[in-house]
Amino acid sequence: MSNSNLVCPLCQCSTPRHYHTDERRQFWQCETCSLVFVEPSQRPLPEQEKALYDCHQNDVFDIRYRQFLSRLATPLLARVKPNSSGLDFGCGPGPALAAILTERGHHISVYDPFFAPCTIVLQDHYDFITCTEAIEHFHQPEKEWNTWMTLLKPQGYLGLMTGLVQSPSQFARWHYKLDPTHVSFFSRETFEFLAHRDGLTLEFFGSDAILLQRK
Ligand SMILES: [Zn+2]
């Protein structure tokens, strides 16, 4: 089944195919970039999103959350030069990754549309940008991706964490898709598409950390 009225919110391709339907929502997959996305009319409203994010209590000093973030922080810290400038995009209410990177001597700005909405940080340029457990919330990920490409210096790193789609059968039993604020689901193929299109190198770490570098 395809829907000629739908456009991929990442690459704007207009031939998405039906991917999955559960009790609450319908999911489509882009033929070009492989993004799986929620039917646009079933995305949460901003006030619903904010109420749910307020329940996410990521403590800056929570050891387990820091261990989770280390899957991205460790390879990123091994690659960036000392005293680099970074932007943690979508930092949420407890910017733990920003704290980890600041402790290692880097200069970190934070941005979050709900919790750190000062857009002046989006006028600077950065040696690296991080976005952990946020890209799956983006309704129009093309918008944030283009922002990152504008803000990232040559040779700059883009470090992401998000659960990756593996197959339709994995998706069908995946708890990750049940969060009503999760609307965009990436896979290795999606990042391979973006890296190839925009001239980035690409590495994966574990099941959910992605590191890209601008060539
Ligand atoms: Zn697409």
From TrEMBL:
InterPro entries: SAM-dependent_MTases_sf
Domain of life: Bacteria
SUPFAM superfamilies: S-adenosyl-L-methionine-dependent methyltransferases (SSF53335)
Keywords: Methyltransferase, Transferase
Pfam families per the UniProt record, alphabetical: Methyltransf_23 (PF13489)
One GO biological process term: methylation
Keyword Methyltransferase attributed: yes
GO molecular function: methyltransferase activity
Keyword set includes Methyltransferase: yes
Name the record gives this protein: Class I SAM-dependent methyltransferase
Taxonomic placement: Bacteria, Pseudomonadati, Pseudomonadota, Gammaproteobacteria, Alteromonadales
